[in-house]
C-alpha cells in the first residue's frame, strides 16, 4: 500500500484561517493525503470564530497568544513550541499562508527540518519593507525558504520571478480567500448582521453604511489618530446620510486612541471584533469601505465595493487596477476629500463599482492541493 503524503497546515490568525479553511477542506477530502492542522493561536478569539465557522478542529493548538506580547516574544514562542511538534509529526509538506509572524517562523522551522514548504499567497510585495510592518519582511523570508510558491495572481508570479525564484517552483492558483468568500455569501445573513443594520437604520430608505477597519502596526500612533479625526469629520458632515460602523481590533494600541477620540460621536458605532460571517454580510451591505486590512481589500474587490485604502502602499495592486481600490494614505484631509467625493458624486462612485475579480475564480484550494501532489523537482537537483 502506497504511503500517504503527510501535509501539515499551520496558521495562527483569523485572516490566515479564512484563507486556509478551503485548503484544509480540500486536503481532507483528498485520499492520497494525510492532512494535519496546527494552530499557533497568535490571535486566540478571532481565530476561534473562523475555526468554528468552517468546522475545523486543529490536531495541535499551541495557544501562544499573550496580552500585548512583542514580536520577538511571539517569534521565540513559535520556534520553541512548534519545533517539537514538527519533529514528532515528520511531515512531507508544510503549508503556510501569507505574511504573519507564524508564517515566517514556521517556514524557517520547515527549512531547518528539511520539510518541504508550500507558501500560499506567495509573491505579494509592497516594495517597502516598513509597510506593512512586519508583514513585508515576513513574506520575503518565507519566499527565501519555500519550495513551492502558490501565487494568487500573475502579478505575484512576476514579483517572484524578478527575485530569482525558479519558474518551475511557481504555480498561479488564485487566492483561496475567494473560495471562502463564495461559500460565506451563499449562507443566510446571520442574526447579528441583521440586528446591526436594523439598530442603525441602514439600508432601504435609511442611512448608508460606511464600514471601517484600521489596525495595522504602521498606523499606530499619529496615523491612527488622523484616521479617527477623518471619521469624526465625515460623521459630522454627513450626519443624516451615513452610519459608520467600526469593529475595533482588540490590540490596546488600537483600542485606546479609537475609543478616546470616537466613543460617543453621533452616527459612529464602535463595535467589538465581528465574526467573519457577520463581517462579510456587512461588507455586502456597505456603500463605502475604509480599511488598512489586506484581506478586506481582496474581499471588497471580490464584491465590487468601492474601497479607500488607508495606507501609502498596497501589495494588492490588482484591486487598484480593477478600479475598486484607491490608495489614500492616513492624512485626515485626503481621507475626508476622497470619501466625500464618493458619497456625493454618483458618477465617481459608479466608476469604482466593479464585479470583475482579479483574485481568482473560487477554485484556488483545489489547485493548491494539485500543485502539492504533482510537485516534481527537475532531474539533477
End-to-end Cα distance: 28 Å
The arrangement of helices and strands along the chain is: EHEHEHEHEHEHEHHEHEHEHEHEHEHHH
Mean pLDDT comes to 94
Say what the CATH topology of the largest domain is: Rossmann fold
Gyration radius from CA atoms, angstroms = 21 Å
Going across the major beta sheet, what is the strand order? Answer: 3-2-1-4-5-6-7
Domain module count: 2
Instruction: Supply the helix-strand structural class.
Output: alpha/beta
Pfam family, one: Epimerase_2
GO molecular function, one term: UDP-N-acetylglucosamine 2-epimerase activity
Domain UDP-N-acetylglucosamine 2-epimerase: 26-372
Keywords: Isomerase
Summarize the structure in short.
The protein is an alpha/beta fold and 381 residues long.
Could you walk me through the main structural features you see in this protein, from its secondary elements to its overall organization?
By secondary structure, the protein is α/β, with parallel strands linked by helices. The protein folds into two domains: 5-174 and 363-373, Rossmann fold; 190-352, Glycogen Phosphorylase B (Rossmann fold). 47% of the residues lie in helices and 15% in strands. The chain is built from 16 helices and 13 strands. The protein has helices spanning 14-28, 44-54, 71-89, 101-112, 135-145, 154-162, 176-185, 191-199, 222-237, 252-262, 276-285, 294-303, 317-322, 332-344, 346-352, 364-373, and strands spanning 5-11, 33-39, 60-61, 93-97, 116-120, 148-151, 170-172, 208-213, 242-247, 268-271, 288-291, 307-309, 325-327. The strands form two sheets. Strands 3-2-1-4-5-6-7 form a seven-stranded parallel beta sheet, sandwiched between helices. Helix 2 (44-54) links the parallel strand 2 and strand 3 (60-61). The longest helix is centred in the first third of the chain and has 19 residues, at 71-89. It is globular, with a radius of gyration of 21 Å. The model has no long low-confidence stretch (mean pLDDT 94). Its EC number is 5.1.3.14. It comes from Bellilinea caldifistulae.
Amino acid at each position: 500500500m502506497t504511503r500517504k503524503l503527510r501535509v501539515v497546515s499551520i496558521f495562527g490568525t483569523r485572516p490566515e484561517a479564512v484563507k486556509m479553511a478551503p485548503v484544509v477542506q480540500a486536503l481532507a477530502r483528498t485520499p492520497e493525503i494525510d492532512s494535519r492542522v496546527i494552530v499557533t493561536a497568535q490571535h486566540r478569539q478571532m481565530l476561534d470564530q473562523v475555526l468554528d465557522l468552517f468546522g475545523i478542529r486543529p490536531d495541535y493548538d499551541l495557544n501562544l497568544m499573550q496580552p500585548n506580547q512583542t514580536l520577538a516574544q511571539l517569534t521565540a514562542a513559535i520556534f520553541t513550541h512548534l519545533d517539537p511538534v514538527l519533529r514528532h509529526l515528520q511531515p512531507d509538506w508544510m503549508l503556510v499562508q501569507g505574511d504573519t509572524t507564524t508564517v515566517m517562523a514556521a517556514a524557517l522551522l520547515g527549512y531547518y527540518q528539511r520539510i518541504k514548504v508550500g507558501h500560499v499567497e506567495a509573491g505579494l510585495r509592497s516594495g517597502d519593507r516598513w509597510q506593512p510592518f512586519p508583514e513585508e519582511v515576513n513574506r520575503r523570508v518565507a519566499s527565501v525558504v519555500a519550495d513551492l510558491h502558490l501565487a494568487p495572481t500573475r502579478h505575484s508570479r512576476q514579483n517572484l520571478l524578478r527575485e530569482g525564484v525558479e519558474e518551475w517552483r511557481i504555480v498561479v492558483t488564485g487566492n483561496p480567500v475567494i473560495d471562502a468568500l463564495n461559500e460565506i455569501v451563499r449562507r443566510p445573513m446571520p442574526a447579528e448582521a441583521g440586528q446591526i443594520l436594523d439598530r442603525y437604520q441602514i439600508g432601504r430608505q435609511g442611512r448608508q453604511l460606511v464600514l471601517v477597519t484600521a489596525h495595522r502596526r504602521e498606523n499606530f500612533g499619529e496615523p491612527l489618530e488622523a484616521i479617527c479625526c477623518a471619521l469624526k469629520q465625515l460623521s459630522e458632515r454627513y450626519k443624516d446620510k451615513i452610519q459608520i460602523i467600526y469593529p475595533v481590533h482588540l490590540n490596546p494600541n488600537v483600542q485606546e486612541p479609537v475609543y478616546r477620540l470616537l466613543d460617543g460621536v453621533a452616527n459612529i458605532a464602535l463595535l467589538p471584533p465581528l465574526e467573519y460571517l457577520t463581517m462579510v454580510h456587512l461588507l455586502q451591505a456597505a456603500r463605502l469601505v475604509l480599511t488598512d486590512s489586506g484581506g478586506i481589500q481582496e474581499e471588497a474587490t471580490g464584491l465590487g465595493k468601492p474601497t479607500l485604502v488607508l495606507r501609502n502602499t498596497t501589495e494588492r495592486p490588482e484591486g487598484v487596477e480593477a478600479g475598486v481600490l484607491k490608495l489614500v494614505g492616513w492624512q485626515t484631509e485626503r481621507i475626508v476629500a476622497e470619501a466625500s467625493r464618493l458619497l456625493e458624486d454618483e458618477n465617481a462612485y459608479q466608476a469604482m463599482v466593479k464585479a470583475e475579480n482579479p483574485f481568482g475564480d473560487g477554485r484556488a484550494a483545489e489547485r493548491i492541493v494539485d500543485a502539492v501532489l504533482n510537485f516534481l523537482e527537475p532531474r539533477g537537483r
